[in-house]
Specification:
Layout (H helix, E strand, L loop, with lengths): L11 H5 L3 H22 L2 H17 L10 H19 L21 H16 L2 H12 L4 H8 L3 H18 L4 H7 L7
Helix pairs in contact: 2-3, 2-4, 3-4, 4-7, 6-8, 7-8
């Protein structure tokens, strides 16, 4: 006698990960992953693709995470690897400095704030890739030096020296904005 059992359709995410808590934590990381990917690529579609790829890989490899407290740095490490892999596959891109990021639809009162934001974005994007990665992880995402070293798989001393060089370069590039920034933007120093 054959017995047939009907199983309800399975959610594809459930195939990769049985823990609801893990899935919820990953979903909470999505905006931060996207923001970091965008700061690295300056491209919305590519950032979305990188974020999606990182989340899928995190779900597929959830058993590799040994310490749940390190979910953030583990997932950001996956994002970094996805970014490196996609960068290797890409053809040379247009120079970001050739584009104007000014938004014409902003009210006149926001012009100064937007110009400062634009200058900071351009300055960060003009940094070499390895410095840009570190400065965004430390100053934008608030990761510790040790976490950044783990995410990028480099020594902590390298993190510190690259961060120092990146901050010096940013200071030099944004020096003429310093008076305006003090009035409009509250900068914070992390670690």
């Amino acid at each position: 006698m054959l017995l047939f059992v009907y199983n309800a359709p399975m959610n594809p995410i459930s195939l990769f990960c049985k823990s609801r808590e893990f899935k919820e934590q990953l979903e909470l990381l999505r905006p931060r992953l996207y923001r970091l990917a965008f700061s690295w690529t300056q491209d919305h579609a590519m950032s979305d693709d990188l974020t999606q790829e990182a989340l899928v890989k995190a779900l597929k490899n959830s058993r590799q995470l040994r310490d749940s407290k390190k979910l953030d740095s583990w997932t950001f490490g996956i994002l970094h690897n996805c970014y490196r892999d996609s960068f290797r596959k890409q053809k040379p891109l247009d120079n970001i400095d050739d584009f104007d990021f000014a938004d014409e639809h902003q009210p006149d009162t926001d012009y100064e704030h937007n110009s400062i934001t634009l200058a900071v974005r351009k300055a960060v994007h003009s940094l070499p890739g390895n410095q840009r990665e570190i400065v965004t992880l430390v100053d934008l995402e608030s990761f510790s030096y040790a976490d950044v070293a783990q995410i990028l798989d480099i020594p902590i001393g390298t993190v510190m020296s690259r961060l120092c060089r990146a901050r010096k370069a940013l200071t030099h590039k944004l020096l003429h904005y310093s008076d305006k920034m003090e009035k409009t933007v509250a900068l914070r120093r992390i670690k």
